[in-house]
Amino acid sequence: MTLRRFMWIFIAIALVAFALAGAGHFLLAWPPGVVGMWAGIGAGYLLGALLFLLLPRWWRQHCDEMYAQPAGKRYVRALWPIMIGYSLSLFLSIWWIKRGIESVPLRAIVAVTPALAIAFFMRAALRYLREIDELQRRIEMESIGIASLGLSLLYFSGGLLEKAKVLSFDAAAAMIWVFPLLMLLYGVCKFVLARRYQ
Can you say how many angstroms the Cα of residue 72 is from the centroid of all Cα atoms in its chain? Predict the structure, then answer.
C-alpha cells in the first residue's frame, strides 16, 4: 500500500467523522461535546492526510517499498481495523462516562477500553518487527529506543518543574499524551535514521 492510498483512506475516515458530527448536530440533536468529539476525530485524520503531502519524495518512496514487502502488507492490514476500533471505542467510552456510570468497576472498564486498541497495535508492531530484515529492524529499534528515552527525559523534567512549582500540569492529560507523544517522537527518529542509513 502506498502512502498516497494511506492519505485517501485518512481523508475518507475524516469525511465519515465529519458526516457523523454534522448528522449529530443537525439531525440527531447530539450534545455539543459528542458532536465536537466526532469533529475532532475528523480533524485529526484530515491533519494526518495533509501531513502526507508535506513528506519528501525519498520518504514516500522508502515507505512505499517498506509496505510493499509481505511483512509491511500484513502490518497495514492489521492496522486499519485497529485505528477504526480505537476511534470508535474512544468515542463510546467518553460518551458513556459522560452520561454517568455509578459502578466504579464498570466505569474503570469503560475508561480503559480504548487502551485495548493500543494493545492490539503493539502486538501488530511486534509481529512486524520480527518479520522485517535486519537493517529495517535496526532502524525501528533505534527509533523506538531514542523516542522512549527522549519521552522519559521530557516527562521526568516536567515532573521536576511541577514539583518546583515552575509549571502546573493536569496529571490525567499528561498521562493520556504519553502514547501520542511517543509515536510522534518515534516517527521523527525513524525519519532521521532512515535517511542516515540510505
Answer: 18
